[in-house]
Specification:
Keywords: Membrane, Transmembrane, Transmembrane helix
Number of domains: 1
Number of strands: 0
Subcellular location: Membrane
Order of helices and strands: HHHHHHHHH
Membrane topology: Multi-pass membrane protein
Distance between the termini: 69 Å
Largest sheet: none
Oligomer: single chain
GO molecular function: amine transmembrane transporter activity
Strand content: under 5%
Protein name: Major facilitator superfamily (MFS) profile domain-containing protein
């Protein structure tokens, strides 16, 4: 496999923006941290393993502590498993299909946009990738904190739009 094919394979792989952003230039990360290529690749592998296994716990946590609390405590790692439920809770049934389709754009566009956004580090400064992710994460955190209602029906004052009211 040629060097160009290896680079294209690295750019094509990845599950979402976070996992594919930092895998664009592993050589720079190896030099900066003085570690082997295996160690750099292991960070992405561990990220993906946790990303795959953690959703097993999110649904029960969301039913116990609420979805908003889950998002604030664990960030976007829980969105794939309980995000569609949140969309269903806050969007009226007649608009729900369109809202779910917009929600599903995120995981579909991640592997495409991750390598494009990684051009931030094209001048060799890989730290901007993580700075970009931190800024984006901070914006999303405050949007969740101030704009997302809690939809857990057992919490007092929560009235999700997906709840069916009794007919007269």
């Amino acid at each position: 496999m040629s060097q160009q094919e290896k680079q294209l394979t690295k750019l094509a792989n990845g599950s979402e923006k976070s996992s594919s952003l930092d895998s664009r230039d592993p050589v720079a990360l190896q030099a900066a941290f003085k570690v082997s290529a295996t160690t750099i690749n292991a960070t992405v592998s561990v990220f993906m393993a946790v990303f795959a296994l953690a959703p097993l716990f999110w649904a029960s946590w969301a039913d116990f502590g609420g979805r908003k609390t889950l998002y604030l405590a664990f960030g976007v790692s829980s969105v794939m498993s309980v995000g569609a439920g949140t969309v269903a809770d806050v969007v009226e049934p007649k608009n729900r299909a369109k809202a779910i389709s917009y929600f599903m754009l995120g995981p579909q566009l991640g592997p495409i946009l991750g390598p494009i956004f990684s051009l931030i580090s094209s001048n060799g400064d890989w730290r901007w990738i993580f700075g970009f992710l931190a800024i984006l994460g901070g914006i999303v955190f405050f949007l969740i904190l101030f704009c997302l209602p809690e939809t857990l029906s057992s919490k007092e004052g929560c009235r999700g739009k997906s709840q069916v009211s009794p007919s007269p």
